[in-house]
Amino acid sequence: MGFRKICPLKLFSYSALAIIVAVYTYFTVTTYAFVNAYIGDEVWYPTAAYNILKIIFHITPPMYFPYSNEAGIQTYVNTCHPPLAKYFMASTILILGYQPAAWRIWSWILGDLTLIVAFFLGKYLLGDHGYKAYLGGIVSTLLVALDPNIWLLHGVAMLEIYVSFFGILSLYFLLKKKLLWGAIALGLAMASKEPAYLLILPFLYYLGDIKKSPIDRSIYGLGIPIVTFGAASLPIIDYYGGLLSWLKGTFLDRASWDITNGHISLADVTQISTPWDWFMNIHPFWMGFHFYATTNPFIMFLWPILTIIVILLKEKNLIFTSMWAWTEWLGFLMVYFLGNHTLFSFYVTDFSPVVDVFVAVSMIYLVDKLVLYQERKSSLQGSSNIENGDNNGNNKSF
User: Fold this and answer.
1) Where are the alpha helices (DSSP H) in 34-99?
2) Are 138 and 17 in contact (CB under 8 A)?
3) pLDDT tens digit string along 260-279?
4) Cα distance between residue 383 and residue 91, in whole Å
Protein backbone atom coordinates (compact mmCIF):
# COMPACT_ATOMS: atom_id res chain seq x y z
CA MET A 1 0.00 0.00 0.00
CA GLY A 2 2.84 2.37 0.83
CA PHE A 3 4.33 2.13 -2.65
CA ARG A 4 1.02 3.11 -4.25
CA LYS A 5 1.10 6.41 -2.42
CA ILE A 6 4.45 7.40 -3.91
CA CYS A 7 4.13 9.69 -6.91
CA PRO A 8 5.83 7.94 -9.88
CA LEU A 9 7.36 11.24 -11.01
CA LYS A 10 8.78 11.86 -7.56
CA LEU A 11 10.12 8.31 -7.35
CA PHE A 12 11.73 8.61 -10.79
CA SER A 13 13.29 11.99 -9.97
CA TYR A 14 14.72 10.88 -6.65
CA SER A 15 16.03 7.69 -8.23
CA ALA A 16 17.68 9.75 -11.00
CA LEU A 17 19.22 12.04 -8.35
CA ALA A 18 20.58 9.04 -6.45
CA ILE A 19 22.09 7.59 -9.63
CA ILE A 20 23.73 10.90 -10.57
CA VAL A 21 25.23 11.28 -7.09
CA ALA A 22 26.43 7.66 -7.06
CA VAL A 23 28.09 7.97 -10.49
CA TYR A 24 29.61 11.32 -9.49
CA THR A 25 31.02 9.79 -6.31
CA TYR A 26 32.46 6.82 -8.18
CA PHE A 27 34.32 8.98 -10.70
CA THR A 28 35.42 11.37 -7.95
CA VAL A 29 37.06 8.61 -5.94
CA THR A 30 38.63 6.92 -8.96
CA THR A 31 39.98 10.25 -10.20
CA TYR A 32 41.33 11.80 -7.00
CA ALA A 33 41.87 9.07 -4.41
CA PHE A 34 44.95 7.69 -6.12
CA VAL A 35 46.77 10.97 -6.75
CA ASN A 36 49.37 10.51 -4.04
CA ALA A 37 50.69 14.07 -4.18
CA TYR A 38 49.72 17.65 -3.43
CA ILE A 39 47.38 19.13 -6.06
CA GLY A 40 47.48 22.91 -6.51
CA ASP A 41 47.03 24.84 -3.27
CA GLU A 42 46.84 21.65 -1.25
CA VAL A 43 50.42 22.56 -0.37
CA TRP A 44 48.86 25.11 2.04
CA TYR A 45 45.51 23.96 3.40
CA PRO A 46 45.98 20.35 4.55
CA THR A 47 49.29 21.30 6.15
CA ALA A 48 47.53 24.17 7.94
CA ALA A 49 44.82 21.73 9.08
CA TYR A 50 47.47 19.39 10.49
CA ASN A 51 49.25 22.29 12.20
CA ILE A 52 45.97 23.48 13.74
CA LEU A 53 45.65 20.05 15.34
CA LYS A 54 49.28 20.06 16.45
CA ILE A 55 49.76 23.66 17.56
CA ILE A 56 46.28 24.81 18.66
CA PHE A 57 44.63 21.59 19.85
CA HIS A 58 47.88 19.86 20.90
CA ILE A 59 47.02 16.67 19.02
CA THR A 60 49.57 15.07 16.73
CA PRO A 61 48.10 12.46 14.38
CA PRO A 62 50.49 10.17 12.50
CA MET A 63 51.99 11.59 9.30
CA TYR A 64 51.87 9.13 6.43
CA PHE A 65 52.84 11.83 3.95
CA PRO A 66 55.54 14.53 4.17
CA TYR A 67 54.94 18.25 4.58
CA SER A 68 54.96 20.33 1.40
CA ASN A 69 58.15 22.20 0.54
CA GLU A 70 56.85 25.72 1.19
CA ALA A 71 58.83 28.02 3.50
CA GLY A 72 57.71 27.95 7.15
CA ILE A 73 55.13 25.26 6.43
CA GLN A 74 55.68 23.32 9.68
CA THR A 75 54.12 26.11 11.75
CA TYR A 76 51.74 27.54 9.14
CA VAL A 77 48.05 27.74 10.18
CA ASN A 78 46.72 29.82 7.24
CA THR A 79 45.21 32.72 9.18
CA CYS A 80 44.98 34.69 5.93
CA HIS A 81 41.72 32.75 5.38
CA PRO A 82 38.95 31.79 7.82
CA PRO A 83 39.41 28.42 9.55
CA LEU A 84 36.30 26.28 8.95
CA ALA A 85 37.51 24.27 5.95
CA LYS A 86 40.72 23.42 7.80
CA TYR A 87 38.67 22.06 10.72
CA PHE A 88 36.86 19.73 8.33
CA MET A 89 40.17 18.53 6.89
CA ALA A 90 41.62 18.18 10.38
CA SER A 91 38.74 15.93 11.49
CA THR A 92 39.53 13.28 8.87
CA ILE A 93 43.28 13.71 9.29
CA LEU A 94 42.72 13.02 13.00
CA ILE A 95 40.97 9.75 12.14
CA LEU A 96 43.01 8.56 9.15
CA GLY A 97 46.34 10.30 9.65
CA TYR A 98 47.98 12.86 7.39
CA GLN A 99 47.59 11.58 3.84
CA PRO A 100 45.94 12.83 0.61
CA ALA A 101 42.76 10.74 0.79
CA ALA A 102 42.15 11.92 4.36
CA TRP A 103 42.33 15.61 3.58
CA ARG A 104 40.18 15.32 0.42
CA ILE A 105 37.26 13.29 1.79
CA TRP A 106 35.23 16.28 2.98
CA SER A 107 35.56 18.00 -0.40
CA TRP A 108 34.12 14.88 -2.03
CA ILE A 109 31.24 14.77 0.46
CA LEU A 110 30.43 18.46 0.00
CA GLY A 111 30.55 18.01 -3.76
CA ASP A 112 27.87 15.31 -3.47
CA LEU A 113 25.82 17.43 -1.09
CA THR A 114 26.02 20.36 -3.51
CA LEU A 115 24.38 18.19 -6.19
CA ILE A 116 21.56 17.38 -3.77
CA VAL A 117 21.01 21.00 -2.72
CA ALA A 118 21.04 22.02 -6.39
CA PHE A 119 18.24 19.52 -7.04
CA PHE A 120 16.02 20.88 -4.28
CA LEU A 121 16.79 24.51 -5.13
CA GLY A 122 15.97 23.99 -8.81
CA LYS A 123 12.83 22.09 -7.87
CA TYR A 124 11.71 24.83 -5.48
CA LEU A 125 12.30 27.63 -7.98
CA LEU A 126 9.93 25.90 -10.43
CA GLY A 127 7.10 25.42 -7.98
CA ASP A 128 8.31 22.50 -5.82
CA HIS A 129 5.76 20.09 -7.37
CA GLY A 130 4.80 18.86 -10.81
CA TYR A 131 6.87 17.68 -13.74
CA LYS A 132 8.47 21.10 -14.34
CA ALA A 133 9.74 21.27 -10.77
CA TYR A 134 11.27 17.79 -10.86
CA LEU A 135 12.74 18.44 -14.29
CA GLY A 136 14.25 21.66 -12.94
CA GLY A 137 15.80 19.73 -10.07
CA ILE A 138 17.35 17.06 -12.29
CA VAL A 139 18.66 19.50 -14.91
CA SER A 140 20.11 21.70 -12.13
CA THR A 141 21.92 18.70 -10.65
CA LEU A 142 23.22 17.66 -14.06
CA LEU A 143 24.61 21.12 -14.83
CA VAL A 144 26.42 21.21 -11.48
CA ALA A 145 27.73 17.67 -12.01
CA LEU A 146 29.03 18.62 -15.47
CA ASP A 147 30.57 21.92 -14.32
CA PRO A 148 34.33 21.52 -14.97
CA ASN A 149 35.34 24.03 -12.31
CA ILE A 150 33.31 22.33 -9.59
CA TRP A 151 34.55 18.94 -10.77
CA LEU A 152 38.14 19.89 -10.04
CA LEU A 153 37.60 21.96 -6.92
CA HIS A 154 35.34 19.41 -5.23
CA GLY A 155 38.01 16.76 -5.77
CA VAL A 156 40.87 18.51 -3.98
CA ALA A 157 41.43 19.93 -0.51
CA MET A 158 40.97 23.63 -1.17
CA LEU A 159 38.49 26.16 0.23
CA GLU A 160 36.20 26.90 -2.72
CA ILE A 161 33.89 23.89 -2.42
CA TYR A 162 33.16 24.86 1.20
CA VAL A 163 32.17 28.39 0.16
CA SER A 164 30.01 27.16 -2.71
CA PHE A 165 28.24 24.46 -0.69
CA PHE A 166 27.38 26.59 2.31
CA GLY A 167 26.55 29.51 0.01
CA ILE A 168 23.99 27.60 -2.09
CA LEU A 169 22.63 25.97 1.08
CA SER A 170 22.08 29.41 2.63
CA LEU A 171 20.29 30.59 -0.52
CA TYR A 172 18.01 27.54 -0.50
CA PHE A 173 17.06 27.99 3.16
CA LEU A 174 16.51 31.71 2.66
CA LEU A 175 14.16 31.21 -0.31
CA LYS A 176 12.31 28.54 1.71
CA LYS A 177 12.05 31.13 4.50
CA LYS A 178 13.92 28.92 6.95
CA LEU A 179 15.77 31.96 8.22
CA LEU A 180 17.66 30.47 11.15
CA TRP A 181 19.18 27.70 9.04
CA GLY A 182 19.87 30.13 6.21
CA ALA A 183 21.69 32.51 8.57
CA ILE A 184 23.76 29.69 10.08
CA ALA A 185 24.70 28.39 6.62
CA LEU A 186 25.71 31.92 5.62
CA GLY A 187 27.93 32.15 8.70
CA LEU A 188 29.55 28.82 7.78
CA ALA A 189 30.19 30.07 4.23
CA MET A 190 31.81 33.19 5.68
CA ALA A 191 33.91 31.02 7.99
CA SER A 192 35.18 29.13 4.92
CA LYS A 193 36.57 31.99 2.80
CA GLU A 194 36.21 35.74 2.33
CA PRO A 195 34.12 35.86 -0.90
CA ALA A 196 31.11 34.79 1.17
CA TYR A 197 31.30 37.96 3.28
CA LEU A 198 29.46 39.94 0.60
CA LEU A 199 26.54 37.50 0.62
CA ILE A 200 25.32 39.36 3.69
CA LEU A 201 24.08 42.06 1.28
CA PRO A 202 21.61 39.96 -0.77
CA PHE A 203 20.66 38.07 2.39
CA LEU A 204 19.67 41.32 4.09
CA TYR A 205 17.88 42.53 0.96
CA TYR A 206 15.69 39.43 0.73
CA LEU A 207 15.01 39.56 4.46
CA GLY A 208 13.37 42.94 3.86
CA ASP A 209 10.41 41.19 2.22
CA ILE A 210 10.08 38.61 5.00
CA LYS A 211 10.83 40.54 8.18
CA LYS A 212 9.66 44.12 8.50
CA SER A 213 11.28 44.68 11.87
CA PRO A 214 14.82 46.15 11.62
CA ILE A 215 15.69 44.17 14.76
CA ASP A 216 14.65 40.87 13.17
CA ARG A 217 16.57 41.71 10.01
CA SER A 218 19.64 42.57 12.08
CA ILE A 219 19.40 39.33 14.06
CA TYR A 220 19.03 37.03 11.07
CA GLY A 221 21.05 38.97 8.51
CA LEU A 222 23.94 40.08 10.73
CA GLY A 223 23.78 38.66 14.25
CA ILE A 224 23.47 34.95 13.58
CA PRO A 225 25.99 34.83 10.68
CA ILE A 226 28.53 36.84 12.67
CA VAL A 227 28.03 34.72 15.81
CA THR A 228 28.43 31.56 13.71
CA PHE A 229 31.58 32.96 12.16
CA GLY A 230 32.87 33.99 15.59
CA ALA A 231 32.16 30.57 17.09
CA ALA A 232 34.14 28.91 14.30
CA SER A 233 36.99 31.35 14.96
CA LEU A 234 37.24 30.80 18.74
CA PRO A 235 40.27 28.46 18.59
CA ILE A 236 42.09 30.96 16.35
CA ILE A 237 41.15 33.84 18.68
CA ASP A 238 42.66 31.86 21.55
CA TYR A 239 45.75 31.15 19.43
CA TYR A 240 46.23 34.90 18.93
CA GLY A 241 45.72 35.58 22.64
CA GLY A 242 42.61 37.73 22.41
CA LEU A 243 40.01 39.40 20.24
CA LEU A 244 42.00 42.51 19.29
CA SER A 245 45.13 40.58 18.37
CA TRP A 246 42.98 38.21 16.33
CA LEU A 247 41.27 41.07 14.50
CA LYS A 248 44.61 42.62 13.62
CA GLY A 249 46.28 39.34 12.71
CA THR A 250 43.41 38.07 10.59
CA PHE A 251 40.82 40.62 9.41
CA LEU A 252 43.13 43.58 8.83
CA ASP A 253 45.95 41.53 7.36
CA ARG A 254 43.41 39.53 5.34
CA ALA A 255 41.88 42.69 3.85
CA SER A 256 45.32 43.94 2.87
CA TRP A 257 46.25 40.57 1.37
CA ASP A 258 43.04 40.29 -0.64
CA ILE A 259 43.40 43.64 -2.39
CA THR A 260 47.09 43.46 -3.30
CA ASN A 261 49.13 41.52 -5.83
CA GLY A 262 51.46 38.79 -4.70
CA HIS A 263 49.30 35.67 -4.71
CA ILE A 264 51.44 34.64 -7.67
CA SER A 265 54.08 36.36 -9.81
CA LEU A 266 52.57 38.85 -12.25
CA ALA A 267 54.92 37.39 -14.85
CA ASP A 268 53.03 34.09 -14.72
CA VAL A 269 50.34 35.42 -17.05
CA THR A 270 48.98 32.03 -18.11
CA GLN A 271 47.88 31.35 -14.52
CA ILE A 272 46.19 34.69 -13.93
CA SER A 273 42.68 35.46 -15.17
CA THR A 274 40.41 38.44 -14.62
CA PRO A 275 36.72 38.19 -13.65
CA TRP A 276 35.74 38.86 -17.27
CA ASP A 277 38.19 36.23 -18.52
CA TRP A 278 36.17 33.61 -16.69
CA PHE A 279 33.34 34.02 -19.19
CA MET A 280 35.65 32.88 -22.01
CA ASN A 281 37.78 30.32 -20.12
CA ILE A 282 40.90 32.42 -20.62
CA HIS A 283 43.96 31.18 -18.71
CA PRO A 284 42.41 28.33 -16.72
CA PHE A 285 44.51 27.74 -13.62
CA TRP A 286 46.83 24.73 -13.84
CA MET A 287 47.04 22.71 -10.63
CA GLY A 288 49.54 20.14 -11.73
CA PHE A 289 49.21 16.76 -13.40
CA HIS A 290 46.40 17.08 -15.97
CA PHE A 291 44.16 19.27 -13.79
CA TYR A 292 42.98 22.68 -15.06
CA ALA A 293 40.30 24.85 -13.41
CA THR A 294 38.35 25.44 -16.61
CA THR A 295 35.04 27.25 -16.91
CA ASN A 296 32.10 26.60 -19.24
CA PRO A 297 31.72 29.64 -21.55
CA PHE A 298 28.31 28.47 -22.76
CA ILE A 299 26.84 28.55 -19.23
CA MET A 300 28.78 31.67 -18.30
CA PHE A 301 27.40 33.64 -21.27
CA LEU A 302 23.87 32.35 -20.73
CA TRP A 303 24.01 33.69 -17.18
CA PRO A 304 23.98 37.46 -18.01
CA ILE A 305 21.61 36.97 -20.96
CA LEU A 306 19.07 35.08 -18.85
CA THR A 307 19.52 37.56 -16.00
CA ILE A 308 18.36 40.39 -18.28
CA ILE A 309 15.39 38.32 -19.48
CA VAL A 310 14.13 37.36 -16.02
CA ILE A 311 14.50 40.99 -14.90
CA LEU A 312 12.31 42.07 -17.82
CA LEU A 313 9.80 39.35 -16.89
CA LYS A 314 9.95 40.42 -13.22
CA GLU A 315 10.51 36.89 -11.91
CA LYS A 316 11.54 37.79 -8.39
CA ASN A 317 13.04 34.51 -7.13
CA LEU A 318 14.99 33.95 -10.34
CA ILE A 319 16.30 37.51 -10.24
CA PHE A 320 17.38 37.06 -6.64
CA THR A 321 19.07 33.71 -7.37
CA SER A 322 21.08 35.32 -10.15
CA MET A 323 21.95 38.34 -7.99
CA TRP A 324 23.23 35.99 -5.27
CA ALA A 325 25.89 34.77 -7.68
CA TRP A 326 26.52 38.20 -9.22
CA THR A 327 27.28 39.55 -5.74
CA GLU A 328 30.29 37.28 -5.39
CA TRP A 329 31.45 37.96 -8.96
CA LEU A 330 31.19 41.70 -8.32
CA GLY A 331 33.22 41.18 -5.15
CA PHE A 332 36.06 39.75 -7.23
CA LEU A 333 35.68 42.62 -9.68
CA MET A 334 35.97 45.09 -6.79
CA VAL A 335 39.08 43.32 -5.49
CA TYR A 336 40.63 43.53 -8.96
CA PHE A 337 40.07 47.29 -9.24
CA LEU A 338 41.32 47.81 -5.68
CA GLY A 339 44.67 46.44 -6.78
CA ASN A 340 44.72 42.64 -6.75
CA HIS A 341 45.52 41.59 -10.32
CA THR A 342 46.44 38.03 -9.35
CA LEU A 343 43.04 36.35 -9.55
CA PHE A 344 42.43 32.78 -10.68
CA SER A 345 39.81 30.84 -12.61
CA PHE A 346 39.11 28.45 -9.74
CA TYR A 347 37.40 31.28 -7.83
CA VAL A 348 34.40 30.65 -10.11
CA THR A 349 33.55 27.60 -7.99
CA ASP A 350 32.55 29.94 -5.16
CA PHE A 351 29.36 30.90 -7.03
CA SER A 352 29.06 28.57 -10.04
CA PRO A 353 26.61 26.05 -8.47
CA VAL A 354 24.11 28.91 -8.11
CA VAL A 355 24.80 30.00 -11.70
CA ASP A 356 24.21 26.44 -12.94
CA VAL A 357 20.89 26.18 -11.10
CA PHE A 358 19.82 29.61 -12.31
CA VAL A 359 20.58 28.77 -15.95
CA ALA A 360 18.81 25.39 -15.74
CA VAL A 361 15.69 26.79 -14.11
CA SER A 362 15.52 29.90 -16.29
CA MET A 363 15.73 27.87 -19.50
CA ILE A 364 12.92 25.55 -18.39
CA TYR A 365 10.87 28.54 -17.24
CA LEU A 366 11.28 30.34 -20.57
CA VAL A 367 10.48 27.25 -22.64
CA ASP A 368 7.34 26.76 -20.57
CA LYS A 369 6.40 30.42 -21.10
CA LEU A 370 6.91 30.03 -24.84
CA VAL A 371 4.79 26.86 -24.98
CA LEU A 372 1.98 28.56 -23.04
CA TYR A 373 2.17 31.56 -25.34
CA GLN A 374 1.90 29.36 -28.43
CA GLU A 375 -1.04 27.45 -26.92
CA ARG A 376 -2.88 30.66 -26.13
CA LYS A 377 -2.13 32.02 -29.58
CA SER A 378 -3.47 28.84 -31.19
CA SER A 379 -6.52 28.93 -28.93
CA LEU A 380 -7.25 32.53 -29.87
CA GLN A 381 -6.81 31.75 -33.56
CA GLY A 382 -9.15 28.79 -33.20
CA SER A 383 -11.76 30.94 -31.48
CA SER A 384 -11.36 33.58 -34.18
CA ASN A 385 -11.85 30.97 -36.92
CA ILE A 386 -14.99 29.65 -35.24
CA GLU A 387 -16.41 33.15 -34.93
CA ASN A 388 -15.59 33.86 -38.57
CA GLY A 389 -17.24 30.60 -39.54
CA ASP A 390 -20.34 31.50 -37.57
CA ASN A 391 -20.42 34.92 -39.14
CA ASN A 392 -20.00 33.47 -42.62
CA GLY A 393 -22.73 30.98 -41.93
CA ASN A 394 -25.05 33.67 -40.61
CA ASN A 395 -24.31 35.85 -43.61
CA LYS A 396 -25.17 33.01 -45.98
CA SER A 397 -28.43 32.23 -44.27
CA PHE A 398 -29.28 35.90 -44.08
Assistant:
1) 45-51, 84-96
2) yes
3) 887 788 889 999 999 999 99
4) 68
